[in-house]
From TrEMBL:
Domain of life, per lineage: Eukaryota
PROSITE patterns listed in its UniProt record: MAM_2
Name this protein carries in UniProt: MAM domain-containing protein
Membrane-spanning intervals of the chain: none
Gene3D superfamilies in the record: 2.60.120.200
Organism: Magallana gigas (Pacific oyster)
One Gene Ontology CC term in the entry: membrane
Domain MAM: 20-186, 203-363, 365-526
Length: 531
């Protein structure tokens, strides 16, 4: 599930008299260069539409008939392949601030990530800015503040694109790069490319722009949603990072519970959309705090809000959670988020990365990992992550040769954790499902697992409801080298709940865990009893 990535190398002061500006219209990369040795693809100069249909821009951003650069994702390109574009070396002193501005185009169902890094002393480090997924057929401006706590020499800006999910419709394009002195100003408006028509993607937003992609606060409610980065102003509630970039510099929107009465409501309204086809609306939310109220989603028409089409109340844990709801087509409507303030100040509710696309939502609870993680999300409070992979893993003597779904060598996908160095004994990796509603009947979680290696640790499955995590199933040590079947009942949950799979590492160079074919039904005919 890789994608294009924009990387900036740590610490940088623009070379005297230069701002690294490039609109690519001279059919060259200006002062920028494709990296050598650290990637396996190149950014390509191009004019007009890209070679793959349903992805890429119809024209450049600068003039509509000039050049831009893009990463071509069709053909025999492996997921995870990357292309890096780097700036000239530059210096930056402690306390100085610079702003990187660029316009990017991320259109198509297979789009991956676009990240920005500041490369310091030859080390790429972590991204300081990130975008991912389908943003619609439009050019969007991104601005990244660059700062350092020490004097740096020979820093670099690197733009890195990585191949997204399987499929040819994942091109990412960049145009009009510039670096200026001082902090970043206001972002430009998102624009629909020439010749493009409005689509459900107009609802898609990562909230990195202060204009919120034309989402608007309702004027008839009690208070407003607030644009925010980092932690909220009240302790023990709200997120610490955004969902898009998973950094304190990324942005989201939230309601501040402090200063408002119980039951007060704030509504955020998406741009209007009209279409005959059904759509799927997906988003991420954070509902952490002992006084959390209710988050609801409405389909607002000319008749008003009506009843919620999705709703959730109470503490849901510290991390970002995934939500989705199918919406029937028809006359014009707007998607509306409504947050109701809970019983106290520790009740901040946040949302990020809403998106809408034509078609039905993926089946709730089922995932074979062939396209993506299907709403399962890696925890931000553990030590490492589950990875989507096909074929063999990176370690010898451990892991499967193929997935369970397709059963053919190297063809299908599964998720796994790589337990070799630098992982240490006791490190954990946790991945969590979307939230499931209360039910009068038991739920059944079914999955396939592979625990193959010389020093296997522990695989645990939990159910979490009202912020309380309860272990349901646990298995430790070397199992067979084949895929094994697990099945667990979640007995008649009275409140919304979610499931998570957690691995505790036993520290060995040949230890991998793998999960595949997660599914959920209303009844387990036979249950695994391992614990």
């Amino acid at each position: 599930m890789k994608c294009f990535l924009l990387v900036i190398h740590s610490g940088y002061e623009v070379v005297q008299g230069q701002n690294f500006a490039c609109n690519f219209d001279a059919n060259n990369l200006c002062q920028w260069t494709n990296a050598k040795g650290s990637d396996n693809l190149d950014w390509t100069l191009h004019r007009g539409a890209t070679s793959s249909g349903g992805t890429g821009p119809p024209s450049d951003h600068t003039s509509g008939h000039g050049y831009y650069i893009y990463l071509e994702t069709s053909g025999a390109i492996r997921t995870g392949s990357k292309a890096q574009l780097q700036s000239p070396n530059f210096n930056i002193n402690r306390g100085q601030r610079k702003c990187l501005s660029l316009w990017y185009h991320m259109y198509g169902p297979n789009v991956g990530y676009l990240n920005v890094y500041l490369k310091k002393n030859g080390v790429l480090g972590r991204p300081i800015w990130r975008q991912n997924g389908n943003k619609g057929n439009r050019w969007i401006q991104g601005k990244v503040n660059i700062r350092t706590n020490s004097n740096l020499r020979n820093a670099l800006i690197v733009i890195e694109g990585t191949k997204g999910s399987v499929g040819a419709r994942g091109d990412i394009s960049i145009d009009d790069i510039q670096v200026t002195n001082g902090p970043c100003g206001q972002l430009g408006q998102s624009t629909v490319s020439p010749g493009a028509t409005p689509s459900p993607s107009s609802v898609t937003c990562d909230f990195e722009s202060s204009n919120l992609c034309e989402w608007k606060n309702d004027k008839t409610d009690n208070f407003d949603w607030t644009w925010k980065s980092g932690s909220t102003s009240t302790t023990n509630t709200g997120p610490t990072n955004d969902h898009t970039t998973n950094t304190a510099s990324g942005h989201y929107v939230y309601i501040e519970a402090n200063g408002h009465r119980q039951g007060a409501k704030a509504r955020l309204i998406a741009p209007s959309y009209s279409g005959r086809s059904s759509t799927c609306f997906q988003f991420y939310y954070n509902m952490h705090g002992q006084h959390i109220g209710t988050l609801s989603v409405y389909k607002k028409t000319s008749r008003g809000l009506g009843t919620p089409i999705w709703s959730l109340s109470g503490e849901q844990g510290t991390g970002w959670q995934f939500g989705q709801v199918s919406i029937r087509g028809g006359s014009a409507y707007s998607v509306v988020f409504e947050a109701a303030r809970g019983s106290g100040n520790q009740g901040d509710i946040a949302i990020d990365d809403p998106k809408m696309f034509t078609g039905s939502c993926p089946k709730r609870g089922y995932c074979n990992f062939e396209k993506d993680f299907c709403g399962w999300t890696n925890s931000v409070t553990d030590q490492f992550d589950w990875i989507r992979n096909k074929g063999t893993t990176g370690s010898t003597g451990t892991g499967p040769t193929h997935d369970h779904t397709l059963g053919t060598r190297g063809t299908g996908y599964y998720i796994y954790i790589e337990a070799s160095a630098p992982r240490a004994r006791g490190d954990t990796a946790q991945i969590t499902s979307e939230v499931f509603p209360p039910s009068q009947q038991p739920y059944c979680l079914q999955f396939w697992y592979n625990m193959n290696g010389n020093a296997i640790g522990t695989l645990t499955v939990y159910a979490t409801a009202n912020g309380v995590q309860t272990p349901l199933w646990q298995l430790s040590g070397q199992q067979t080298g084949q895929w094994n079947f697990g099945r667990i009942s979640v007995q008649s949950p009275k409140t919304a709940f979610k499931c998570s799979s957690c691995v505790t590492n036993n520290h060995h160079d040949t230890t991998d865990y793998h999960l595949e074919d997660n599914s959920r039904q209303n009844h387990c005919s036979r249950e695994s009893t391992v614990m």
